[in-house]
Amino acid sequence: MTLYFMTFILFCIGMYALVVKKNLVKKIIGLVIIENAVNLFLILVGFRFDAEAPILEEGMGKMVAFVDPLPQAMILTSIVIGLGVVALLVAIAIRIYEKYGTFDISQIRELRG
């Protein structure tokens, strides 16, 4: 239960950075923190104590508790998609900086150019 609470706190930290901060780089970092919190939560959903990898071998005696591999596969996909999103956001932030000379959203709104 403590691990779920810690992922919730991590999610709240990322949401705080995304909502309150005015710097584009800090907003991107907040989004990355949110993505990592969601990934950790999904890994925790599939985790079981005293479980083994879901690999069946010939001559296995008894059935033991297995870890669910589906959340792990989803997280691998999520990491790749998240990397692409972050790369796109950084490229957009660089273009905004080249045009306006600042990362501050309030100054960018005032320029309207």
Describe the overall structure.
The mean pLDDT is 88. This protein has one domain (2-48, 68-111): Helix Hairpins (Orthogonal Bundle). Helices cover 71% and strands 0% of the residues. It is mainly alpha-helical. It has helices at 2-20, 24-46, 70-100, 105-111.
Topology of this protein?
Elements (H helix, E strand, L loop, with lengths): L1 H19 L3 H23 L23 H31 L4 H7 L2
Summarize the structure.
The chain is mostly helical and 113 residues long.
What number of domains? Answer: 1
Low-confidence stretches: none
Main CATH class? Mainly Alpha
CATH-derived architecture: Orthogonal Bundle
**How far apart, in Å, are the first and last alpha carbons?**
50 Å
**Main beta-sheet annotation:** none
What Rg is obtained from the alpha carbons, in whole angstroms? Answer: 20 Å
Topology as H/E string?
HHHH
SS strand fraction:
under 5%
**What is the number of helices?**
4
Report the average pLDDT across residues. 88
Measured as a percent range, the helix fraction is over 70%
- Overall geometric form: elongated
Q: Which topology does CATH recognise? A: Helix Hairpins
Structural class comes to mainly alpha
Notable characteristics:
113 residues, elongated, Helix Hairpins, single chain
